[in-house]
Amino acid sequence: MSPHAVEQKPTFCRICEPLCGMIATVEDGRLTALRPDKDHPLSAGFACQKGIAFAEVVNDPDRVTTPLKRTDNGFEAVSWDEALDDIATRATEIHRRHGSGAFGWYMGNPAAFSYSHLFAAMSFAKGIGGDSHFFSSSSQDTSSRLLASQFLYGSPMAVPIPDLIRTDLLVMMGANPVVSHGSFLTAPRIKDRMHDIVKRGGRVVVLDPRRSETAAQFEWLGIAPDADAYLLLSVLQVLFSEGLIDRRAQSQADGLEWLRRQCAQFPPEVTQPHTGIAPEAVRALARDLADTPRAAVYGRLGTCVGRNGTLVAYLIDAVNLVAGNLDVPGGSVFSTLGIPGQKWGSRLMGASLRRSYRKKRTRVGGLPLVIGAEPAALMAKEIATSGNRQIKALFVGAGNPVLSVPNGAELEDAAESLELMVGLDLYVNETNAHCDYVLPVTSMYERDDFAITFQQFQATPFRQVTEAVVDPVGQARTEWDIITDLIERMKVRTPVFLVLRRLRKGLGRRLSARPMVDMMIRMADGGDRFGLRRGGLNFRRLSREHPHGTVVAPNIRTGVLDEVVTYRGARVQLAHKDIVDEIGTLARRGGAEGFPMRMIGMREPRSENSWMHNAPLLMRGDRIQSAVMHVDDAAVRAIEAGTQVVVRSPYGKVAIPVSLTHDIMPGTIAVPHGWGHRGTGGWRIANRAGGVNVNQLMSSDPADVEALAGMAWLTGIPVEVEPAG
Ligand SMILES: Nc1nc2c(c(=O)[nH]1)N[C@H]1C(S)=C(S)[C@@H](COP(=O)(O)OP(=O)(O)OC[C@H]3O[C@@H](n4cnc5c(=O)[nH]c(N)nc54)[C@H](O)[C@@H]3O)O[C@H]1N2
Ligand SMILES: Nc1nc2c(c(=O)[nH]1)N[C@H]1C(S)=C(S)[C@@H](COP(=O)(O)OP(=O)(O)OC[C@H]3O[C@@H](n4cnc5c(=O)[nH]c(N)nc54)[C@H](O)[C@@H]3O)O[C@H]1N2
Ligand code: SF4
Ligand SMILES: [Mo]
C-alpha cells in the first residue's frame, strides 16, 4: 500500500472576481481543505467564507458525478457514450429540420471564470450557425455597462475602472464590495484598499438606497432606488453651469456642448424629488469631483439593472470625463493588457459590433443584442413563441435562469415544451431539472485555468494560472471536452464544427483551448512575446515559477485612450440619439398605482447567486432568506419585526420574513435573490432552506426590459408590502 500522501497546492478561487489565492490540501488525491494563501502578492492571506467552503462543493454528495438522463422516474445515471450519442443524434435531427435558429445557449455566471467553458460555449453556440440564440447572465448583470462603453468608446470591451490604488475620492454607486468583494473590478482585499484611501486622507462616498455593509464603513449618501440617472444629470448640470469643465475633457471627447444641452434641464432642485438628495449635497459632490485631482465615480450592479441602466453607466463615465478624471492616475482608468496590435483588432470588432447593434433585433420584442447576446428575460418567450427561429433545443451551462432572470415560472413552463434540453452543471438545479440530460462538469479545482475575463479589470495588473489541483470527481469532464466530443458526434457541417471535428479526430481528448490562453499571456504585458522578451511569462512559467501569481506592474497604465477608443481619431463620442431618447423617458416615468414602495436587491456574504446554498459551512445556524425594510414603513402597515410579509408587485407576489432597520431609505424594501429552492433541484440542504424566488416579482414583458441593452429590470421594482395572513 502506498503511504498516506498529503500535498499543499497553491491555486486560486474562482467563485467571485478578486480571484483570491488559495492553498488546497490534497490527501491521497482528494481535496480535503482550502485555506487562504499568505504568499499571494495581493490577497495576502485573505479568503472569504465561500472560498473556504468550496471544498464542500467539490465533495458534495449531492453533486452530479455521472451523466444523468431524465426518465419518467426521475434522473438515471447513464454512460457518457449513451448520453452524448443520443444528444448528438437529436441535435443533428433538430438542425436538419429547423436549422441553427432552433438552438439556444444560456451561459451562466461561473462560465466567465473558466476559459474552457468560454471557448466551449462560443464554439457551440456561435459555431452551429448564424441564426442561433445566445443568452447569458450578462443581461442581468453587465450588458448595460458594456453598451455604454460601445457608445462612448466605440467598443464594449473598453470598460473603465476606478484606480483604486491611487484615488483620493471614490464615489461608489450601486456596489457593495464589502459583501460582493468587487465586480468589474478585480481587487483582492478590496475593503482594505478602500480603507487605504481614507488613511491617506481621501474619502469613499457610497450612494445606495440601503446603508449597506460598505456604506456603513464609509460615508453613506442615501439615494432613492433607480434614481441615479437624475442625480448624475444634476452633477453634470452643476459642472457645466459652474464652469468646472476640465480642459482635458475638451482634448479627449467630442460632444461636450451637446451634453451640456442634455443636462441643462436637470438642476439639483428639479431632481431632488426623484433622488431624495438635497441640492447642496449634489453641488458639493460635483465640486469635489472637479477639485480633487485624483477622483473617480464607479457604478456597478445596482446602477446597471434599473430601468435606464445603459444611460446611468454612460452618465457615470460622462461625469468622470467632464470632471477631468478619465484616463488619469487616480481617476477612472482602463486596465489594458498591452497586447501589440490589439488596438486594430478592437477597432475591427468595435465597428462590427456597432453595425450589428443597429441591424440585429431579437425575434420576440425587437430588442437589440449586446456583444452578441440576447436578453435572457425573453428566453422563455423565444421558446414558447412559434415561427421561424423558435428555440427547440436549449443548452444551459453554469446557469440557473429559473432563479436568476425575471419570471422563472414562465421559463419553467417553456422548458417543458423543448425537444431537447441539456445542462452542464455541478448540480441538478431548478433550471436543469427540466433537462433531458444533465452532464457532470469539473469544478474549478479539477481544471487548469487562467481567468481571461478579469484580466482587464485588475486594479493591480497581475497574472496567475493554475493546473488542476485534483483529478475530476466521478466522471466529470471539462465543458470544452464535453462540447468538442458532442460536436464530433454530430453530423452538422458548419465551418467551425468541421474544423473542431478534424482537430478532435487527430488529438482526441488532448485537444485543448489552452494554446489560445497561453498566447494571450505571452503577448500581454509581462509576457515572453514568444521569446522576444527573455524571462517573460507564459502559461508554463507562470505555473512553475510563480505558483502564487505575479504582479506585472504596480499601477494601471494611463494615457491609453488612443489604444482603447476605437472611433476615428480615438476621441470619446458623447452625442447619441439613443441617449437622448433615454433621457426623454425619465420625464415620462410614472409610479405604479397601488405599489408605493420600491424593491431592491441585497447580496449576502454566505450566498453566491443561487448556487452555494448546499454547503453546510455556509448554511450554519439554519440560515434562511429574509427581507429588510424601514421601521417607519413597517409601522404604518402594522408589520412587526421577524414576521412574514407578502411583497406584491404588478407582476407577482412572494411571502418572506422581514427584519426592520433605520438604515434604508424610507419606501424601500431589500430582498436577497437566488433563493427559492423548492425540491425540483437535487441539492438537499438548499431545498431545506427554501425561501422564495424574488424574480417572480420581476417582469419579463419586452416593454419592461431596458430598451438599449435588453437588461432585466431588477431594481426599483414597484411593490406593496403587507403583513401575511
Ligand atoms: N457574497 C456574494 N458575493 C458576490 C455575489 C453573491 O451573490 N454573493 N455575486 C457576485 C456577482 S455575480 C456580482 S455581479 C457581484 C455584484 O457586486 P456589486 O456590484 O457590489 O453588487 P451588489 O453587492 O449587488 O450591491 C449592489 C448595491 O446597489 C444597491 N442598489 C440597489 N439599487 C440601487 C439603485 O437604484 N441605485 C444605487 N445607487 N444603488 C442601488 C444595493 O442596495 C446594493 O448595496 O457580486 C459578486 N459577489
Ligand atoms: N433579483 C436579482 N436577480 C439577479 C441578480 C440580482 O442582483 N438580483 N443578480 C444577477 C447576476 S449579477 C447574475 S451574474 C446572475 C447569475 O445567474 P446565473 O448565472 O443564471 O445563475 P447562478 O445562480 O450563478 O448559477 C450558477 C450555476 O452554475 C453552476 N456552476 C458552478 N460552477 C460551475 C462550473 O465550473 N461549471 C458549470 N458548468 N457549472 C457551474 C452552479 O452549480 C449553478 O447551478 O443572477 C442575476 N439575477
Ligand atoms: S472573495 Fe470571492 S474569490 Fe475570494 S475567497 Fe471569497 S469567493 Fe473566493
Ligand atoms: Mo453577476
- How is the biggest beta sheet arranged? 7 strands, mixed
* Helical residues, percent: 25-40%
Radius of gyration: 25 Å
Which molecules other than protein and nucleic acid are bound?
ligand MGD, iron/sulfur cluster, molybdenum atom
* Termini gap: 64 Å
Number of helices: 26
Structural class: alpha/beta
Low confidence ranges: none
Report the sheet-strand fraction. Answer: 15-25%
Counting DSSP E segments of at least 2 residues, the number of strands comes to 26
The outline comes out as globular
Placed side by side, the strands forming the largest sheet appear as: 5-4-17-16-15-6-7
- What is the overall pLDDT average? 97
Regarding quaternary structure, what we see is single chain
Domain 4Fe-4S Mo/W bis-MGD-type: 6-62
Protein name: Anaerobic selenocysteine-containing dehydrogenase
Family: Belongs to the prokaryotic molybdopterin-containing oxidoreductase family.
Keywords: Iron, Iron-sulfur, Metal-binding
List keywords for this structure.
34% helix; binds molybdenum atom; alpha/beta; 725 residues; binds iron/sulfur cluster; seven-stranded mixed β-sheet; binds ligand MGD
